[in-house]
Design goal:
With 202 residues, the chain is mainly beta. The protein is 4% helix and 37% strand. It has 2 domains: 1-66, no CATH class; 69-195, Sandwich (Immunoglobulin-like), CATH 2.60.40.2060. It has 2 helices and 12 strands, in the order H-E-E-E-E-E-E-E-H-E-E-E-E-E. Strands 7, 8, 10, 11 and 12 form a 5-stranded antiparallel β-sheet that branches. Strands 5-6-9 form a 3-stranded antiparallel β-sheet, with no helix packed on it. It is globular, with a radius of gyration of 21 Å. The mean pLDDT is 92.
Length: 202
């Protein structure tokens, strides 16, 4: 939001929105020099307070943000299973972050775990919500309710419903989400696995 434009007396000042990239970075080279208020929105995290930034002409301004996610998820182990070695057993650990922040006054659904989902792709390492082969993962989902876990205490999930993969290379990650209004996920790092051609189901 350009504060300098508003302070100059313009009543029709509008916010500008742009999204981060798949790797978590963002870049916008079409912003005028001036004084801005930067706000992080629409992510699966507790956002920091807005920041006032001065953008200078012909200069690239770097901003680094650290946020607390609604939940953390880590893939512990992926094992090829089955007689043809083309099924996956995925062990992963989930930890919510409810006890790391002051949740007073927040909607409980914002930070209550609701589900975990496996995402897998043979086409791109940038696997996620909009890049996933659901034919392999449609059953690879776990649902949670408050009371199924203890806030702040990590717990492990074992997923065995990724089956009958074709031979080749795949990228796998786990997404965990709360009942936040935008239904945004927190993601694990991406793991690469290879289903061997000589033993996979034809």
């Amino acid at each position: 939001y350009e504060l300098s434009w508003e302070e100059a007396g313009h009543a029709n000042t509008q916010s500008r929105f742009f999204w981060g990239k798949a790797d978590g970075t963002f870049l916008n080279t079409k912003i005028f020099a001036g004084k801005y208020r930067i706000t992080l929105k629409e992510g699966a995290f507790y956002a920091p307070e807005p920041e006032v930034v001065y953008l200078k002409e012909n200069r690239l301004t770097r901003l680094d943000y650290s946020v607390i996610p609604y939940a953390r998820v880590n893939i512990d182990e992926i094992t090829l299973t089955g007689s043809k070695q083309n099924n996956l057993e995925i062990k992963y650990t989930i930890e919510d972050t409810e006890k790391e922040v002051n949740t007073e006054g927040l909607d409980e659904g914002l930070y209550t775990l609701s589900e975990a989902q496996v995402f897998i792709s043979s086409k791109s390492p940038n696997v996620g919500v909009n890049n996933s082969e659901t034919k392999y993962t449609i059953r690879a989902k776990k649902e949670f309710e408050r009371g199924d876990y203890e806030p702040g205490v990590p717990f492990q999930v074992v997923e065995k419903n990724v089956r009958n993969l074709d031979p080749g290379k795949y990228w796998v990650r786990i997404g965990v989400r709360t009942a936040n209004p935008q239904k945004r996920y927190n993601f694990s790092t991406i793991k690469e696995i290879v289903v061997p051609a000589q033993t996979a189901e034809k």
